[in-house]
Amino acid sequence: MNYASPLRVALFALVPLVAVAFQSVHAQAPTPAAPAPSTTPAPPPAENKSPGDLPSAKTPAPVQTADPFGEQIMLTPKTVIATKGTANWDTAYETLVSSLKTLTAALEKSGDKQAGNSMIVYTSTDDTGFTYLAEIPVDQEPKDLPKAITVAKSPEGKALKFVHRGSYENMDNTYEAITNHLDDKKLEAKDTFIEEYVTDPLKTPDDKLVIDVYVPLK
Question: What is the pTM (predicted TM-score) of this model?
């Protein structure tokens, strides 16, 4: 399956620009005058009715808040187990899931538990593929890990947060929006980006994924 990567590659080629901050000032609205007393007679009191006679009140539907887009945050370093990998865009998701399965199996064997969402840290990209670190947070350093797995720290520092919902195959739409956002705001990004899997990619259908994308800033 082809995952069409050029927009992710573009994140590594953004021209450094200076960030511009904006602040809006809101004028305080004047206090409205008190309404004139009404001359309309008050309605007669309602008759007492049993609960069964009253119309049923409908519970209002919860308001769906918008996902953060370009929210500035500070990434806190976490202790993780990590493994390096290289992937082609054609089989990117399958390769990433395989690396996360390897890390999960190592934790199960050591008796340790996962202490946060799985992450993929992209360290370089080109038109054909990319290199990455697959990471899983842990509370303490596991013992007797395979040679291909190391204990490390996840990225830290100032970053922008974006949210992707849906399949990995459709993530280029998200990365196009991210690239446009960085250009519009004239922000200078580092040569890396991070995907944090809010939904477990080992158990979640591909089209139901929720992935937080972090773009570290210089």
Answer: 0.72
Residue 2 neighbours by CB under 8 Å, 6+ apart: 89, 90
Element spanning 96, H or E: helix 92-110
- Give the largest CA-CA distance in the chain: 86
- Identify whether the C-beta of residue 211 lies closer than 8 Å to the C-beta of residue 163: yes
Question: Which pair of structure tokens corresponds to residue 204?
Answer: 């979640």
Q: Where residue 99 falls among pLDDT bands split at 50, 70, 90?
A: very high
Domain annotation for the chain: domains and CATH numbers: 6-13+69-216 (3.20.80.10)
- The DSSP element (H or E) to which 104 belongs, if any, is helix 92-110
Percentages (nearest 5) of helix, strand, coil residues in the chain: 25, 30, 50
- Classify residue 153 as exposed, middle or buried by CB count within 10 Å of its CB (0-12, 13-18, 19+): exposed
